[in-house]
Amino acid sequence: MLQQNSLNLDNEGRPTRDPEILKQMDSLKKEIDKKNEEILKLNKDVRDLRAQNDNLQITVGSKEKKIKTLKEKIQKLESEKKTLETNLKAVQVELDAVRSGVAEMKDKNATLKTDVAKLSSRMDEVTKDLHESIRENSTLEEKNTTLKLTVEKLSRKVDGITEDLEESITENRSLKKEVDDLRESLEMAENALVAERMALPFIPSTSANPLTSASLVLGELCWQIQGMMYQNVFPNSYDSKKSYKMKHIDQDIDDLEDEQQREEAKKKWSE
Description:
This protein is mostly helical. The protein contains 4 helices and 2 strands. The protein has a domain at 214-270. The protein has helices at residues 19-199, 210-233, 246-255, 259-270, and strands at residues 8-9, 15-16. It has a two-stranded antiparallel sheet with strand order 1-2. The longest helix has 181 residues, at 19-199. It is rod-shaped and about 220 Å long.
């Protein structure tokens, strides 16, 4: 405000301004203009701030929704966390059990390794024995081949011997029949001779009796036939220097310990 005493009047009675006052007025106008600019700027800033505030209010509402959503997610995550912690405890129990099982499996594995080592050693021994057996088998096969050839040769010989034996058996049967017939004839002749001797007086003979000679020949023949029969039944035990009778054959058959040999001997003797 200007003081009243600072005004001057001109000739017409109008107030005049002191240059100092004018200067002060100019300065004040400038300050007023400056303040107006500041006010305009402040008003603009206020409008901007209000606009920002409105935007912030919108943003805050959106953020609150997000915060609410996040809180719900946090609660859900907390629940899931508790579930996971429970599952973790269960898994931990299973893990402890698995670790215990692994420890047991390691012990078993160590035992199995020991067993495998033993089996491997045993397998080496068995493999060695197998190779030896294969070599022995190869040798045996060679021997078997040789034996087969020998058996074939012997079989041919046996076939020949069997044919001869069959011929001998046929001859023996014929001889046996002849012997039986001769025995009957001899018995009849002896009976007739006894009857004649009882009927006739005793007459010394200077020459050999034909009946006696026939008896000697017949006895020799019977001895040979019985020896042949024994040889047929016991070819390995026969001795041409010994005298055999049919009762000896029966006795030797009964003395055989092997049942199969005994049956074969009986079969030969019955033929």
